[in-house]
């Protein structure tokens, strides 16, 4: 068994859509990033890569490469899941927390969990998504951006 943890933050921008877990969230701001800046997926990718000892998202998908500009993070996750399977690992479970004062993601929770479980090839009972605010503290509390943290447990298939 191998454990990995991932963390990501992105600031809000006035233009562009907001994606969380590959799902478009109806909100007045988008997130700034080289890709679609889906912090939830970025933290999950880092957790999976970390558990395998394969570096991080920046190693695999550098923001200096044009081909990743504005790419949907869901495509990056799909690539990482294929790497995971090709290295004889399977995801046992994932626990993810979104840190956001706004927007509230409760109404998107089931869609995000279903979307991620399909890509990860796991039952939704092996995926837990939660959200919290920072009670008005820091850049997240001032509604300047969103953060996410993920932890995963992988099992090596022998």
How are the secondary structure elements laid out?
Layout: E1 2-13, E2 18-20, E3 23-25, E4 30-31, H1 39-52, H2 57-60, H3 73-86, E5 89-99, H4 109-120, E6 127-132, H5 138-141, E7 145-156
Parallel strand pairs: 5-6
Antiparallel strand pairs: 1-4, 1-7, 2-3, 5-7
Helix pairs in contact: 1-3
The name of the CATH superfamily reads 2-C-methyl-D-erythritol 2,4-cyclodiphosphate synthase
> In terms of structural class, how would the helical and strand content be classed?
alpha+beta
Per CATH, what is the topology? 60s Ribosomal Protein L30, Chain: A
Q: Indicate the proportion of strand residues.
A: 25-35%
User: Helical residue percent?
Assistant: 25-40%
Order of helices and strands: EEEEHHHEHEHE
């Amino acid at each position: 068994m191998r454990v990995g943890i991932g963390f990501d933050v992105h600031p809000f921008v006035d233009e562009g859509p907001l994606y969380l877990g590959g799902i478009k969230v109806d909100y007045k701001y988008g997130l700034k990033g080289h890709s679609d800046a889906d912090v939830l997926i970025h933290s999950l990718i880092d957790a999976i890569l970390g558990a395998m000892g394969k570096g991080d998202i920046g190693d695999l998908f550098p923001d200096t490469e044009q081909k990743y500009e504005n790419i949907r993070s869901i495509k990056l996750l799909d690539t990482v899941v294929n790497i995971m399977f090709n290295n004889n690992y399977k995801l046992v479970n994932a626990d993810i927390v979104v840190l956001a004062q706004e927007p509230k993601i409760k109404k998107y929770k089931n869609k995000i969990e279903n979307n991620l479980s399909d890509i990860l090839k796991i039952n939704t009972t092996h995926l837990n998504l939660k959200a919290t605010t920072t009670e008005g503290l820091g850049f997240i509390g001032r509604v300047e951006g969103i953060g996410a943290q993920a932890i995963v447990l992988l099992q090596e298939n022998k």
